[in-house]
Design goal:
The chain has 235 residues and is an all-alpha fold. Helix content is 81%, strand content 0%. It contains eleven helices and no strands. It has helices at 2-25, 38-51, 56-75, 78-107, 116-119, 127-152, 157-176, 179-190, 193-199, 201-225, 227-234. Helix 3 (56-75) runs antiparallel to helix 8.
Length: 235
């Protein structure tokens, strides 16, 4: 009787434990924020939620603002765009400051400065935080320098050839688009591709797998014909 009762209880226990694992792992869906530490999840999850349109108003504001700025930079110079943005911001803040001063004078109230709550915010950057940011940046800088040396000094012939082919293709891209146009296209892709991939993940993964397999077979054939790579694999 004890064995039968334990057997009947074990499926429920295993099902509950198996059901708890996906939630702890983030579910594995592309739209779920990865399970990171509390410090690292702050910024990464914010960006993740932004590009996946979790908050439509917030994402729409960021997307619209940056797109308008890039379109303005495509039509005007950087100095003109920055000057107009600063003038627009000053017009709003000065108008609001004067409006609140007039209202306080008419109502004879003493509410104080309308932006006092923001003026009292401590925005100073501590030396410890600055060093932490610099150390994090230096890790990426060192990785980039190591990769550049590896590619330009031809540590791996195939990787250097890939870079050469990519740069050759970029010459044609540069002849058609300028830098601002590429930034506009990049922003459109950043705010559209993730949400499309989240919706059609299965179909996209299928075709990407086919393309990856074909690309891998072509690279292997090229590596087999290159003399240096063939000897390295034989060893």
């Amino acid at each position: 009787m004890a064995e039968s009762s334990a057997a009947t209880q074990s499926p429920s226990v295993s099902s509950s434990s198996s059901g708890a694992e996906p939630s702890a792992l983030g579910g594995g869906s592309p739209g779920a924020c990865p399970a990171l530490g509390a410090k690292s999840c702050g910024s990464s999850c914010a960006v993740h939620d932004l590009i996946f349109w979790r908050d439509v108003k917030k994402t729409g504001f960021v997307f619209g603002t940056t797109l308008i700025m890039l379109l303005s930079l495509a039509a005007f110079s950087v100095i003109s765009v920055v000057s107009y943005l600063i003038l627009a911001l000053l017009s709003v803040t000065i108008s609001f400051r004067v409006y609140k001063s007039v209202i306080q004078a008419v109502q004879k109230s003493e509410e104080g400065h309308p932006f006092k709550a923001y003026l009292d915010v401590d925005i100073t950057l501590s030396s410890e935080a600055f060093h932490n940011y610099m150390n994090a940046a230096m890790v990426h800088v060192n990785k980039a320098l190591k990769l550049i040396i590896r590619l330009f000094l031809v540590e791996d012939l195939v990787d250097s050839l890939k870079l050469a082919v990519f740069m050759w293709l970029m010459t044609y891209v540069g002849a058609v688009f300028n830098g601002i146009t590429l930034l506009i296209l990049a922003e459109l892709l950043v705010f559209s591709v993730p949400i499309v991939y989240e919706k059609y993940k299965t179909q996209i993964d299928h075709y990407v797998g086919i393309a990856r397999d074909q690309t891998k077979s072509i690279v292997e054939k090229i590596q087999a014909k290159l003399p240096g790579i063939a000897k390295k694999k034989a060893e």
